[in-house]
């Protein structure tokens, strides 16, 4: 495990879909949006802005690497100078590499997230000085994960490979900008098996008994992931001192879907929140009916995995992804 990575920075938007979405908490605790994260049950445990029943992957990585329970949002008015030294989050729930996605969902686009990161750097320099700030950035671990929301539209054509390149261009721009701002070590997350999300099944199969993963949507995600994995080494060779590592989220999540009992899950086709069919994000709140035992559910809502699922993915990243940064 890397020992030089002193801080965990979340320069990103997630996971969004499955991201902040899918992997990452949101940095927009006060922004009004159809994808605002956080419910009462979750906020009692950790900071608001998480579409799950607990911590997300960056939180768990921070716990393992930094002994820090969660990654706080940079836009949180109460963020401390100490938090600046050990990692903060710039993600916006529901955002993606496609600007149309950000416009439709009214979320912070990557450009604004990068602007916030620039503000963070200015504040960091005031706290520790220019040289120390430069060292902190160079030793930071950046997690970038997005794309699920981009391919979540019902109008999405899952044979449109050109759209994959549009998303990859957005990812490449994000990586270059973060590198130019002083960061060197980055983990870039793959797309999940989008065709296995409860909401995708609900839209395709009105009859609950017919629910199953949608092959063409999963194949599209895999095709994108293959291109991403191939692009990152090429991009790394162009960015001085960079270390770009591909994080395969698809594989561990699909293994949980295919072999739920091995991971302690009972239900993989429905979310714990509400009916489990379509509820997601802000529709899961203190007024929403919940399942009796959320530990049995792979998914928290119709899009986002449960804390239990995130725990297994985080363990996968710690074992198979982080060592590649050495």
Structure description:
It is a single chain. The chain is built from 11 helices and 6 strands. The strands form 2 sheets. The chain has a 4-stranded parallel β-sheet, sandwiched between helices. By secondary structure, it is of the alpha/beta class. InterPro entries: GDSL, GDSL_lipolytic_enzyme, SGNH_hydro_sf, SGNH_plant_lipase-like. This is GDSL esterase/lipase. Belongs to the 'GDSL' lipolytic enzyme family.
Helix content, binned percent = 25-40%
Instruction: Write the H/E string, N to C.
Output: EHHHHHHEHEHHEHEEH
Radius of gyration: 18 Å
Query: Which structural category do the helix and sheet elements fall into?
Result: alpha/beta
Low-confidence stretches: 11-21, 28-47
**General form:** globular
Strand order of the largest sheet: 1-2-3-4
Strand content is: 5-15%
Distance between the termini: 7 Å
Query: What is the strand tally?
Result: 6
Overall residue-averaged pLDDT value: 83
Largest sheet data: 4 strands, parallel
What's the tally of helices? 11
Pfam family, one: Lipase_GDSL
GO molecular function, one term: hydrolase activity, acting on ester bonds
Protein name: GDSL esterase/lipase
Family: Belongs to the 'GDSL' lipolytic enzyme family.
Summarize this structure briefly.
With 326 residues, the chain is α/β, with parallel strands linked by helices.
How is the secondary structure organized here?
Blueprint: E1 7-9, H1 40-43, H2 57-66, H3 81-86, H4 99-105, H5 110-128, H6 130-138, E2 140-144, H7 161-180, E3 185-189, H8 198-204, H9 215-238, E4 243-247, H10 250-258, E5 267-271, E6 297-299, H11 307-320
Parallel strand pairs: 1-2, 2-3, 3-4, 5-6
Helix pairs in contact: 2-11, 5-6, 7-9
